[in-house]
């Protein structure tokens, strides 16, 4: 981790640059697979599953029997853990339910807004060295609370043609309505166009590699919404001497182990503290199974000494971190003034891991500075707001003239007429 | 308007198909202009303004003097109308403000969600035959309520190098912080990358032609959010014999005059009523200044007889109209069960024009079936939700073991360590 001391604001954008991703060369592949799946459906999907996942499947669909078997293969300890996490996520996302907002803007003009569920949603769960079943909770729990009718989960099969037990267990626990063994670009294409076995959905959620990311971006061209653009995970810790260096080191490492392109940044007012953290990192990293990944990620990472809290705040808002841990003696200052962050962890006993799994907040968050404009996944991500209006005769008499004048000024005579024809009857 | 009687569900997708748009050939142009603006800033912008708008400007920026002059050129009658519309829009969007949502998910684990403003937003207002100043109200009013610090409005200059008086008046009335004379692809590129005169923003709002639409889509690749993908405007009216045929005809025409690619659909249980409406359309269309546009749009348009209300509802949800007018003797049934629509107008005295201008609801709505997954613009469009969590020692003792087990099962040892290292001190 390289250290920078009170860097000038003009250097921040270079200093805080994310590890670059080149996606241009991927686009051709993604477009080709989309075309093929659109035209040839399951036949194309099977071809790519064989090509990329190295397995030929009799059927894409996961059976009830498979789910039952999976469930029986999970320890009761882990099941209990998953259930506690689910309950906290449920509690926090249920608290986000909103009532109808209704108001009479002018006498006789009643307007209201209601959230209604997105009926068909797709959840993509990557497979890799380990099954990321926590993401199933983060996406299926709010989908179920929102009232989504179809919750379709896609995840790539392993060489034996199976999806990990933990993913299947979490899926049935959280009300997923259909589980399909399909991954990568072909999964996103399937959810976009629909195939014989994959239902077409209205919105696709979930993380993935660069191929999945580009595929989700392409899906939006076909009218399918996505949760948000994705990028490598990142963490910024703001800590001073009131923090515990070994805790901070453990948090930075928890982020660094995600991938070599993960980015961790430490902002502190104390150089001594930064050095302590560095020592702790060196000590802790040795025993990690994923130490090579973590060490690579740490190469991209920076310690920034900011003596002035206001400057530190500006720098954090400029960076717009996905995860922000605050361990300072004035956390309230940062909490009150942070503008751009995905999720904020406050104090010495709020590690990022807590939010990744079990505190109740969602772990699907905007990376790459997107927290300047995007929310993390929340209950509203699974609904859309519809507005309604009911205007009485009196109401139209009250605003009719305004509509006529404005429509006229915009040169839209038929818009005006729609009011005039009614006003004529009312006057 | 062609009439279809009780069409079979298998034919709906063909029947309800939107007029197609081909955007592929536009993409090359858009990409080229983006590259040029990214590299050459204002110089490139000026070049395209000369090319597309046919005017050479000394300066892009609108001065306070220009705004004052514009204001003095607007009739006090129109000013009053704009102010009434603004007040209703303000009332409805202020009602959408939400409190912090805070909950203790487990003892010692407090999670909360707060909405914070998107600091820099761009508003695009097209120019054309007439100044669409109502869109300024629809976008700047909620931006100001949300607390966006920079509200940048871009609109193409006319041949004399000016933006319409009404747009300038509405902009200053609604707290726009900067007005720039720039349109089309070069405006969206400027807002995406920033130039000497155009501030870079985090999210771009507003309608536009196909070039602007493709440019906004490209902006998302560079990490700039957009309000929603756009398409031609559309209206579905569900009406029975309890409705007034001349009112319904006026509403259909108000949508049809937008553009030849606008789509209007009438759903009714009565063939007689449809014929009445058709007669009224023929009568009313004659006097419209934009009758040629309206007539062309009507060619794409359909009357669908649905004898069964449940079938009608299914068809409407399948189509997912941007605007939905309900004039039936059982509007409550449709209101309760509609799943997909942008904005709904209820009863004989709620024409779409009311929502276009002055009732208080927003007129920036999802077209092209996007209301299956997207909300119309609302207050939340100008904010993002940030989550926070504060976990006490007791809280971490309560959920620590769950985190450890789940992290272990996901093969993320450093995630587990971040908890274990703390629990060791606490136990």
Descriptive overview:
Two copies of one chain form a homodimer. Chain A has 427 residues and is of the alpha/beta class. Chain A folds into three domains: 2-18 and 231-360, Nitrogenase molybdenum iron protein domain (Rossmann fold); 24-70 and 108-226, Rossmann fold, CATH 3.40.50.1980; 392-426, Single alpha-helices involved in coiled-coils or other helix-helix interfaces, CATH 1.20.5. In chain A, 46% of the residues lie in helices and 17% in strands. In chain A, the strands form three sheets. The first copy, chain A, has a six-stranded parallel beta sheet with strand order 1-11-10-9-12-13, sandwiched between helices. Chain A has a five-stranded parallel beta sheet with strand order 6-5-4-7-8, sandwiched between helices. In chain A, α7 packs parallel to α8. The first copy, chain A, is globular. At the A-B interface, α4, β2, β3, α8 and α9 of A face α4, β2, β3, α8 and α9 of B. β13 of chain A pairs parallel with β14 of chain B, so a sheet runs across the interface.
Helix content of chain A: 40-55%
CATH architecture of the largest domain in chain A: 3-Layer(aba) Sandwich
Work out the helix count of chain A.
16
Class of the largest domain in chain A in CATH?
Answer: Alpha Beta
What keyword list fits this structure?
homodimer; 427 residues; alpha/beta; Rossmann fold; Single alpha-helices involved in coiled-coils or other helix-helix interfaces; 3 domains; 6-stranded parallel β-sheet; 5-stranded parallel β-sheet; 16 helices; 46% helix; Histidinol_DH_CS (chains A, B); histidine biosynthesis (chains A, B); Ald_DH/histidinol_DH (chains A, B)
